[in-house]
Amino acid sequence: AKNIVEEQMKTGEFYGRYIDDIFMTWNRSEEELKKLLEDLNTWHPNIKLDYKIGNSLPFLDVQFTNNNGTLLTSV
């Protein structure tokens, strides 16, 4: 997971984590993201990631929305 955070920082993406919830932005292809998430799901036999991909998603008590490349938040 440390590699993912470092990669997100290098590419100017956003990454947030609270206990077992993770939120991240991604500007590459959806196929690349799904491949990354599928690879992550092979790291440990007892840990499986459940993920959602979209332009507007909740994280904790905040709704994050990608509006033409601008990240908007609402509570």
Automatic annotation (TrEMBL):
It comes from the Eukaryota. This is Reverse transcriptase. It comes from Rotaria magnacalcarata.
